[in-house]
Amino acid sequence: MQCILEEIEGIGPVYGEKLRAIGITTVDKLLERCAGKQGRVAVARETGIDEKSILTWTNHADLFRIQGIGPQFSELLEEAGVDTVKLYVDIVHKYKADSFDIKHDTEAFALELAAMYVRELFPIPQIREANPDLNFGTALMPRYKEWGTVFNTESAFVYKMTENYDLAWDLIEFFNQEKYLKEWFRNSGWVPPRIDIDFTDIFAEEPAYKTALEFPEGYIFATYPPLPCVDEIYTKLGERLEKAFRDSSLVDNPEGIKLVLEGAAEETNEILRENGLYGEGEIEPYWVISK
Predict the structure, then answer these.
(1) Domain end marker among 18, 45, 64
(2) 112 and 27, same structural domain?
(3) Does the structure show a pLDDT above 80 at 221?
(4) Pick from 223, 252, 285, 222: nearest CA to 68
(5) Host domain of residue 50
(6) DSSP secondary structure, 53-88, as one string
(7) Residues near 80 by Cβ (< 8 Å), separated by ≥ 6?
(8) Are residues 95 and 127 located together in one domain of the fold?
(9) Element holding 221 (H helix, E strand)
(10) Bridge partners, residue 202, by sequence
(11) pLDDT tens-place string over residues 5-61
């Protein structure tokens, strides 16, 4: 990736010359030298550039490795993360429209203690059972700059070490027949990832399910990365985000929010390195499917 340094937002001629003076002449070399904290500290010491700026540039350079992402889009991706954290921080601390003291789960919604909550569709049967007279509906999350969701394309798995591997697969294939999948959807709320099945009879019985398969033009589906360490990545990211949402000092503090996200990005990259999964070179994005 032989992009010149100045293609990264924030690196102008002055900073570019300081980096080139210590041998960082391309975006590739910036990534090579600054991927780890020790490298960034050393570069900061040698150039006089603050480490925070170097981390931001390194994160943008990392995004450059994805084909189709240039300097402006890498900046946009960072802004999208800042906007998301800002939204939740402002809702809780600035506008007082929500609170961590309020229960936000299926039980609270069914008991009418919460007016709304964000969840998949599988709690619908539980809500109906707990409160048959509750009048409620479902809707997609509101649109911002983009509009989409995370969607699983797999619903059943067999571990390779399973003793009766072939038998287990036979059972899965048996239950993948249309009549069983429809019953699964009807009774559990889990949406089968199938577009070849007509679910209109189920939607007539339970209109709240209709949101599951009716999407507007341009709606984006992002799949979960098939990585062994993905649960660790999401768990640690979730812990950081929850802590950020509780932090009132982040109100009107975009730089503080950026530090939260940069720390999360660094932690994710370190987990990927530890598992031998940190990508090198250009990456073809596989995780986004646009309707």
Answers:
(1) 64
(2) no
(3) no
(4) 285
(5) 1-64
(6) HHHHHHHHHHHHTBTT--HHHHHHHHHHHHHHHHHH
(7) 145, 146
(8) yes
(9) strand 220-222
(10) none
(11) 888 877 888 999 999 999 999 888 888 888 777 888 999 999 999 888 888 788 777
Report the alpha-carbon distance of residue 133 to residue 268 in Å, rounded: 45
Strands 148-150, 288-290: pairing kind: unpaired
Contact 121, 138 (CB under 8 A): yes
* Residue 200 burial (CB count, 10 A): 9
Same domain, 147 and 110: yes
Average pLDDT over residues 123-148: 89
Cβ neighbours of 7 (radius 10 Å): 17
Residues 235 and 169 in one domain: yes
Residue after which a domain boundary falls, among 27, 42, 64: 64
Total residues found in the chain within this entry: 291
Cα–Cα distance measured from residue 19 to residue 23, given in angstroms and rounded to the nearest whole number: 7
Token look-up 């002055």 returns 14
> What is the spatial distance between Cα 165 and Cα 284, in angstroms, rounded to a whole number?
33
Check residue 105 and report its DSSP letter.
Answer: S
Both 20 and 44 in one domain: the answer is yes
- Amino acid making up residue 34: C
Shared-domain flag, residues 10 and 100: no
Give the number of domains in the chain.
Answer: 2
